[in-house]
Amino acid sequence: MTSTDDTTHQALLRRGFTLEYITLGWNVVGIVVLAIAAITAKSVALAGFGLDSLIEIGASTVVIWELSGTGEDRQRRALRLIGIGFALLAVYLLVQSTWVLTTAFHPEHSPLGIAWTAITAVVMFTLAYGKARTGAALGNPVLTTEGRVTLIDGLLAAAVLLGLILNTAIGWWWADPAAGYVLVYYAVREVKEIFFGDH
To answer: Considering its fold, how many domains does the chain have in total?
Structure first.
């Protein structure tokens, strides 16, 4: 590796670290905001999205750990840890959303939840784009995979946002647990990709 290549590699690594630290900070704040919003509105979708933020914190921590070292074994372990987090999220959301639907539990309106998920969707899509480009440039499958996790986080924020808006605007209370099922679908898909996909 030439000095120019090494300089470029180091710059890309710094960018990867920066993207992960921003993601980490955003989700730490997000857990607090979402916990308040979920408890106030008694919303399964907001609670699930809060757990997704917790998994994103774990995923970012794993990527920071992986970027600090090298080796395929370290990358494989990092990917498995991210996959386990998504599997746990899927199980929780499946049980919780089914319980809410079968008991016809009606969540309250959540202006805080609507505002936070709208802003989060924009932030996550921006971070996902940066991670995808940086991971590809580094040839790092862990950063690239975590970029997909961040993209899914943005998609989930949009799905939860839609459920909250439908509940608030036209009283479709079932849109909240339905958004929970959307999260289950994406979580299961990511688990399948991590454990059985080609990295």
So the answer is: 1
**What tens digit of pLDDT does each residue of 28-66 get?**
999 999 999 999 988 877 888 888 888 888 888 888 887
The CA–CA distances, whole Å, from 179 to 11, 25, 183 equal 39, 25, 7
Centroid of chain to Cα 4 = 34
Q: Cβ–Cβ contacts within 10 Å for residue 199, how many?
A: 12
The CA–CA distances, whole Å, from 62 to 18, 21, 59, 75, 98 equal 14, 12, 5, 9, 31
Specify the residue for token string 């958004």: 179
Residue recorded with tokens 């399948």: 192
End-to-end CA distance of the chain: 24
Query: What is the value of pTM for the model shown?
Result: 0.80
Residue numbers of the domain that contains 85: 3-196
| Element (DSSP H or E) covering residue 126 | helix 111-138
Measured CA to CA, the distance from residue 85 to residue 42 in angstroms comes to: 23
User: For position 114, which CATH number holds?
Assistant: 1.20.1510
